[in-house]
Amino acid sequence: MYIQTNTEGSGPILTRKVSTDLDCETAALLRAAIRPVFASAASWGNLSDILKDKGYHLAFRQGRLCITDVATGARVCGLRFLGFELKDLISRLGRPIVVARGNQADGDVLAVRPTSAQT
User: What is the residue-wise DSSP string for 39-54?
Assistant: First the structure.
């Protein structure tokens, strides 16, 4: 058995990467706060506005609709986590207005259709 007695120059102590997954209590609270917003939304604009007031934003990440944090842009959760399917929301709210971002099937859901400025 070899025991290292000299620690000088052995490198930094590596720490475990902190998990970005939600713990079960946070997940339950998030579902309880966000599910009713999706269930009662009258339009994509209405849904976007309410989520924005709560500090969230609707966005596509890698081709999937998810909720992101307004301040950081970090992905919080997807629709399936909340128990919704995109096709069901589309049948109820219509097609969302999406602006593509980057080239990884990412995009942002807009609350209102952009207008063109004619000069």
Answer: HH-SSHHHHHHHHHHT
Do residues 20 and 76 lie in contact, with contact meaning Cβ atoms separated by under 8 Å? no
Handedness of CA 103, 106, 104, 20 (dihedral sign): positive
Locate tokens 């939600």: which residue? 22
Q: Is 76 in contact with 58 (CB distance < 8 Å)?
A: no
Q: Of 104, 116, 117, 95, which Cα lies nearest the Cα of 45?
A: 95
pTM of the model: 0.72
pLDDT in tens, 19-58: 457 788 888 998 999 999 999 999 999 999 999 999 999 9
